[in-house]
Amino acid sequence: MKWAIGQKTGSGSAKAVLVVLAEAADDAGLCWPSQRLIAARADVTKRTVISQLAALERLGLITRTRHDRENGSRSSDRIRLSLSQPGEASSPPPGARVSPGTVKVLQQGGEEIAHLTSFEPSIEPHIEPASSFESFWQACPKKVGKKDAAAAFERVVGAGDATVEQLVAGMVAYGDQVRSEGTAPKFIKGPAGWLLGARWDDGEIRGAASCLSALPAWPGPAHILADIVRHHEKSGVLVSRFCGYRDLPTKAITTSWPHVADVLRSELRDLLAHHGLEVVCNAQVAA
Description:
The chain is mainly α. It has helices spanning 2-5, 12-24, 35-42, 46-58, 130-139, 146-158, 164-181, 191-196, 203-213, 222-231, 233-242, 258-267, 269-275, 282-286; strands spanning 30-31, 62-65, 78-81, 103-108, 111-116, 243-246, 252-255, 278-281.
C-alpha cells in the first residue's frame, strides 16, 4: 500500500487502481483480481480500469500476463507490481520460507476473494463454504453434473467474476425463465455450462441479482430469498430486514412483526407452498 501511494501515476484514477492492486497483492507483488472487482474497489467504471491498467503498464509500474482457464476461456490477468524500487523488496530475504497458499484477502460486499502467493502457486481457487454452493444447486432447474458444477462455481467466485448472491439469484431467474417459457428438458442448460457461459450476466438475470445483493443478510437459504425477490421485491425487503428462519419443527420464515407476517402470507401464498414454508409470527405465538 505504501509503495503504491508513493508512485507518480499521472491521474487519480490510475492511483486508485494501483492502490487496489497493492491491497490485493502478495508479498511478491502478484495478484489477479477481476476488472469488475477492481472497478468496485476503486469506485471507477470497468472501462476506466481497462485504460488505467494499460497506462500503469506503460509506466512500468505493473506487468500483466494473460491467464486462460482449462476450458480455454479467459480468466483474470496475472498482475505483478514492480516493487523493486529503492527501499522495497521484490522477493523474500535469503533463507526465508513462504508457505504454500499464503494469502492476502480483498473483500467485495463481505465476500472474501483470496489471492495466492507466487512462490508456490496453487491452481485451486478460493472455495466458498459448501452451504453457498448448495443454495445455488437447489435453485438449478436441471440438476446434473454436481461435481463439475461445484468446481465451476468455485472458479467463478474465486476469480471474483461474480458473488455467491449473484449466482444464486441468477440461477433462480433462469429457472423461472425456463419454466415460464416451457423449455424442453434437453434444451435446459446444466449448471456447469450455465456458469462457464456467464449466464448470470444476462440482462433480466442481472436485474434480479442486483436486487438481491442490495439486501441485508438473511439467515435462511439464499435461494429462497432470491426466489422471493424475483417474485415480489417488496416482500424480499421485508424478509431480509425483519425476518429469521427455522428448519424445525417445520420450515418457516419467522418474524416478531404481526403486520409483516400478514403481508408475507398474503403476497407469497403460492411461493410459500412451493417451498414448503409457513410464516410464523413470534408475537402471535407468545400471545
